[in-house]
């Protein structure tokens, strides 16, 4: 499976994976005034971030929804991060508790690997949890400083298999939130 290079490649990725689209459980749709302030904060490399973080998708809600839909994203909501940088502890929580799941927001991207790299030794547990329905696609869209495709590409480069990718990118979030969404 080749990772998508650009956002426009994501529908091809979905077809190759055999899923009708993506179910991204970590996106942001805030009131415009609040979103402007979030973007201003990141434009200034906020003091808590300390790295350049230019928001790539500074569009109104309608344009952002249309862009997600054009990439095949059919389900989106907001949830918590995967516990970075305490990956091991949060993976154990998900493993030990029936109703705990983790999302992939920003982890496995070259951007986030510089800040809090995912430990290679934890990949087998992440694979097992993904196949068990406990890892969900998350992106932090639109508040990301890189193309959306980079989040998907990071998942592909883990080489955890197509079954894992289908589970994380579609089956797990759809099962968690209910319903069978169609492309």
Describe this structure in words.
There is one protein chain. The chain has one domain. Helix content is 43%, strand content 6%. The strands form two sheets. It has a two-stranded parallel sheet. Strands 3-4 form a two-stranded parallel ribbon. The longest helix is centred in the last third of the chain and has 16 residues. The radius of gyration is 16 Å and the shape is globular.
Give a short synopsis of this structure.
With 183 residues, the chain is mainly alpha-helical. It has helices at 10-17, 32-43, 61-70, 87-96, 110-113, 123-131, 148-157, 162-177, and strands at residues 22-24, 73-76, 102-103, 135-136.
CA radius of gyration:
16 Å
The biggest sheet amounts to: 2 strands, parallel
Question: Which percent band covers the strand fraction?
Answer: 5-15%
Q: Which strand order spans the largest sheet, edge to edge or round the barrel?
A: 1-2
Shape: globular
Give me the strand/helix succession: HEHHEHEHHEHH
Nearest-integer average pLDDT = 87
Point out poorly predicted stretches.
none
Tally of structural domains: 1
Count of runs of 4 or more consecutive helical residues: 8
N-to-C CA distance: 21 Å
Beta strand count:
4
Percent range for helical residues?
40-55%
Category from helices, strands and their pairing: mainly alpha
How are the SSEs placed, and which strands pair?
Layout: H1 10-17, E1 22-24, H2 32-43, H3 61-70, E2 73-76, H4 87-96, E3 102-103, H5 110-113, H6 123-131, E4 135-136, H7 148-157, H8 162-177
Parallel strand pairs: 1-2, 3-4
